[in-house]
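Hi support team,

I've been running sequence recovery on a batch of backbones for a student project. Most finish fine, but this one hangs at about 90% for roughly twenty minutes before it completes. I'm not sure whether the input is malformed or the queue is just slow. I've pasted the structure tokens below so you can try to reproduce it. Let me know if you need the job ID as well.

Thanks,
M.K.
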């Protein structure tokens, strides 16, 4: 039965690969995006030459932070509570969903900014299906895939697989009128469509790029401005953030923020960096602090573990927690350039296979076998995460757990018994080699 299950899992992976190879429309969209990103990043790094050295400093910050991760989460939680916010630690995805649902309640209108962590725990689907909430994705890429009923295919650019012609068709159906495949026009439509939801929303949900433990300050990096609307306009702001995102000080957090934009989107600095330390407040009347001025009256921060502590304890896999989630490695990955989001789950590429194994299950991480080990990801990573080493270790773990193709096991037996994967008798192989040598000599 185990062998049949393994064969089914690998056949599913094989089908996804074949589907990806045949999907020319997605390949066109991906090629356009890759060309634009690589060109932009090259210009930025030639201008901001210090970022390469700063990236190594950020790695050191991450190494220290992961070594005292729980201590920093406790410090950040205390700082948030001192500033009239609420902090929670969720051990599992189920616990995180339950905490958020208790804060939100039933039948609410929610505006949500892009969040890998929320995608990891399937938060939107849970709130919609179990609590009858209406959750509106406000990031343009997330909005596109939500309307299309698809899953994100990149951690920074969720709709990278959708060419502008398909976006136009999708938005035309939503608008009830024909829209051209002109990108500024499509962006203008999304702006007009989404704005009506911000002021009506009961709750805004976000992730965070980094958290400074000392002050409990949440940093949110974006270019569109939708995260500011989502976290400022509704009366309640809920932030779901992985415990690996916490660093000791504001100074450390700023260094992360300085490195991230160039590698994530090929810009010198993001259009917006929001720093949120408490609910909105004022002391303009007799210097008495009152919470709930123009912005949210409530701030809730949910720190998510969901396998991160286990990763941190592993001598090799802990390096995956240094990843800044810039997504730059995906653009350089030869496999991702063909398969896009099929080379992963909600975390993609080589490093994504480790994240998927611990946050979704090792049976979901078989795409690790697709990695070629070329090392381009390691070379372009701002913090030099050794992804090929991580993937090699993960494959070893998968084999130990029995997650290997049944045919591979037969190949190993054949090599041991006959000296070749096909199980041909050694005598037969010697005859073939001799014949090959004779042919080679005649050709010479």
């Amino acid at each position: 039965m185990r062998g049949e299950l393994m064969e089914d899992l690998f056949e599913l992976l094989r089908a996804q690969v074949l589907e990806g190879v045949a999907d020319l429309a997605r390949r066109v969209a991906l090629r356009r995006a890759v060309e634009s990103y690589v060109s932009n990043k090259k210009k930025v790094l030639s201008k901001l030459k210090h970022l390469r050295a700063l990236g190594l400093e950020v790695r050191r910050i991450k190494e220290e932070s992961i070594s005292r991760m729980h201590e920093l989460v406790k410090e950040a939680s205390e700082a948030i509570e001192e500033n009239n916010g609420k902090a929670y630690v969720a051990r599992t995805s189920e616990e995180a969903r339950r905490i958020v649902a208790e804060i939100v309640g039933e039948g609410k209108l929610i505006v949500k900014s892009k969040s890998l962590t929320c995608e990891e725990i399937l938060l939107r689907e849970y709130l919609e299906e179990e609590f009858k909430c209406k959750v509106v994705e406000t990031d343009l890429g997330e909005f596109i895939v939500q309307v299309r009923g698809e899953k994100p295919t990149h951690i920074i650019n969720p709709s990278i697989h959708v060419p502008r012609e398909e976006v136009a068709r999708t938005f035309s159906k939503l608008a009830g009128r024909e829209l051209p495949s002109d990108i500024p026009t499509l962006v203008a439509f999304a702006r007009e469509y989404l704005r009506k939801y911000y002021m009506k929303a009961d709750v805004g949900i976000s992730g965070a790029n980094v958290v400074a433990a000392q002050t409990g300050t949440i940093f949110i990096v974006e270019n569109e401005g939708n995260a500011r609307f989502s976290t400022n306009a509704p009366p309640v702001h809920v932030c779901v953030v992985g415990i690996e995102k916490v660093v000791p000080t504001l100074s450390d957090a700023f260094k992360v923020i300085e490195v991230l934009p160039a590698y994530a989107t090929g810009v010198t600095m993001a259009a917006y960096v929001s720093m949120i330390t408490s609910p909105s407040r004022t002391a303009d009347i007799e210097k008495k602090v009152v919470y709930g001025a123009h912005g949210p009256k409530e701030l809730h921060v949910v720190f998510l573990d969901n396998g991160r502590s286990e990763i941190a304890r592993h001598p090799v896999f802990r390096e995956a927690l240094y990843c800044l989630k810039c997504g730059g490695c995906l653009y350089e990955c030869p496999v991702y350039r063909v398969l896009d989001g099929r080379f992963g789950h909600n975390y993609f590429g080589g490093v994504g296979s480790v994240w998927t194994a611990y946050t979704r299950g090792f049976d979901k991480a078989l795409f690790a076998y697709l990695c070629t080990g070329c090392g381009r990801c390691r070379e372009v990573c701002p913090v030099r995460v050794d992804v090929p080493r991580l993937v090699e270790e993960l494959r070893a773990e998968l084999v130990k757990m029995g997650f290997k193709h049944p045919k591979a096991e037969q190949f190993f037996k054949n090599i041991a018994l006959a000296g070749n994967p096909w199980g041909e008798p050694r005598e037969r192989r010697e005859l073939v080699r001799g014949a090959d040598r004779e042919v080679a000599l005649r050709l010479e």
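--
Follow-up from support: It reproduced on our side and the slowdown came from queue contention, not your input. Residues 439-444 have pLDDT under 50 and may be disordered. No action needed from you.
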